[in-house]
Specification:
The structure holds two protein chains of two kinds. The longest helix of chain A has 29 residues. By secondary structure, chain A is mainly α. Chain A is built from three helices and no strands. By secondary structure, chain B is mainly α. Classes of the chains: A mainly alpha, B mainly alpha.
């Protein structure tokens, strides 16, 4: 395989995951938290594809496609929840959604 | 020659990936964040192509840049200015903790990759020309992974129905109090 080895792809994937996790932790807007979640799922896909190439086996790519479907479904349900929140006139701020706090 | 070319493409794609990822996280306006996500997904698709995953790269661009991001943009437009939430807390402690936690994840896994798996990951097998092509992925989906394929369709159906229900149900106290019925 020309170019960088598998370890380089894995390191890129980990740094991307960390960027996504940072976004989930630091932002309060649920929309941007969802976007950061998509970044984390995508970095997982990159690791799956790198290992699939390393093993010389396409099953990892099937797994990546399944993850993509899950990510799309999660985006649909998450955006639906955000629209429902906005219809209830709730604040679009994840720090203020404390109804379930014990 | 080809080696250098692949390295250049890889470095460009990885740089664009990190820059656009940080842009998604740091932009105040969700509209710009969603647009940066398109750049993020496109550079990720380049890395997928370098890993000889042609079909996944194409599906990535179609599903994400074509559908998911457009949906994000619609919701952002629907919410208008109310979607521009600021950064977390305003408490410096929370921001510091977020930075430390994210850096800890990155450092831990990078150290593990470099120390424990560095040598073993260097051998990459030769793969046939058709590796990752739509034909071979399709064959795998309809033979070995048929169950995953069917379950996927059910998940999508359930998500679509859930999205419609979440989006169409009017909250109870939004009905006008006296409508004359019942």
């Amino acid at each position: 395989m020309a170019g960088p080895g598998i370890a380089a792809y894995l390191i890129v994937s980990v740094i991307l995951f960390a960027i996504g996790a940072f976004g989930v932790l630091i932002r309060r807007s649920p929309l941007i938290v969802l976007l950061a979640l998509e970044i984390m799922l995508n970095s997982g896909n990159l690791a799956l594809l790198a290992f699939s190439r390393h093993a010389g086996n396409e099953d990892g790519q099937i797994f990546a496609l399944a993850v993509m479907v899950v990510a799309a479904s999660e985006a649909v349900v998450g955006l639906g929840l955000i629209v429902a929140m906005s219809r209830l006139r709730a604040d679009l701020d994840v720090d203020k959604l404390t109804t379930l706090r014990g | 020659m080809e080696e250098t070319f692949v390295w250049i493409v890889w470095v460009l794609a990885a740089t664009a990936l990190f820059a656009s990822g940080l842009a998604v996280v740091l932009f105040h306006n969700p509209f710009y964040s969603a647009l940066s996500l398109i750049v993020n997904l496109a550079s990720l698709a380049v890395l997928f192509l370098l890993l000889t995953a042609e079909f996944v790269a194409a599906a990535q661009v179609l599903v994400y840049a074509g559908a998911v991001v457009v949906m994000f943009l619609f919701v952002t437009a629907y919410l208008g200015g109310r979607a521009d939430a600021p950064f977390a807390g305003g408490r410096t402690l929370q921001r510091l903790a977020a930075i430390v936690a994210a850096a800890a994840i990155a450092v831990e896994v990078v150290v593990v990759i470099v120390l424990a798996a560095g040598d073993r990951l260097n051998e990459v097998p030769e793969v046939p020309e058709s590796f990752g092509s739509p034909a071979s992925i399709g064959t795998l989906f309809l033979s070995d992974h048929l169950l995953a394929f069917e379950v996927t369709s059910i998940i999508l159906l359930v998500a679509a129905v859930g999205g419609v229900i979440l989006g169409s149900t009017v909250p109870p106290h939004h009905h006008p109090p006296s409508r004359g019925e019942r």
